[in-house]
C-alpha cells in the first residue's frame, strides 16, 4: 500500500515538474515575442514621428510662402490632417 502511495506521489511530483518546465518555456517564448513586438512598435512610432515632423515642416513652409504672396486668409482656416486610416 505504501509503495502505491509513493508511486502516486512521485508521479504527481514528476507531473508538476514537467508542468513547471512547460510553463517556464512558455513564459520565455512569450518574453521573446513581446520584446520583438515592442521593438516593432517603437520603430513604427519613430517612423510616424518622422512623418509628422516632415508634414509640420512642409505646412510651415507653405504657410510662409502664402504669407509672402499676401495670402493671409489661409492662416485663419482650420487645417484638418486626415490619416491613411481615414480612407485616403
> What percent strand?
under 5%
Overall outline: rod-shaped
End-to-end Cα distance: 76 Å
Total strands: the figure is 0
Structural class: mainly alpha
* Biggest sheet overview: none
Provide the low-confidence segments as ranges: none
Portion of residues within helices: over 70%
Please give the radius of gyration in angstroms. 31 Å
Enumerate how many helices there are, as a single number.
1
Number of domains: 1
User: Could you spell the SSE succession in H and E letters?
Assistant: H
| Global mean pLDDT | 88
GO molecular function: myosin XI tail binding
Main location: membrane
Subcellular location: Membrane
Keywords: Membrane, Transmembrane, Transmembrane helix
Give keywords.
mainly alpha, GTD-binding domain-containing protein, single chain, GTD-bd, transmembrane, 1 helix, transmembrane helix, rod-shaped, 88 residues, membrane
Amino acid at each position: 500500500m505504501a509503495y502505491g502511495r509513493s508511486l502516486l506521489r512521485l508521479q504527481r511530483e514528476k507531473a508538476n515538474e514537467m508542468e513547471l518546465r512547460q510553463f517556464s518555456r512558455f513564459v520565455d517564448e512569450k518574453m521573446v515575442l513581446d520584446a520583438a513586438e515592442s521593438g516593432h512598435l517603437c520603430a513604427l512610432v519613430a517612423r510616424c514621428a518622422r512623418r509628422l515632423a516632415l508634414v509640420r515642416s512642409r505646412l510651415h513652409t507653405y504657410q510662409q510662402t502664402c504669407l509672402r504672396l499676401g495670402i493671409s486668409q489661409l492662416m485663419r482656416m482650420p487645417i484638418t490632417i486626415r490619416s491613411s486610416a481615414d480612407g485616403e
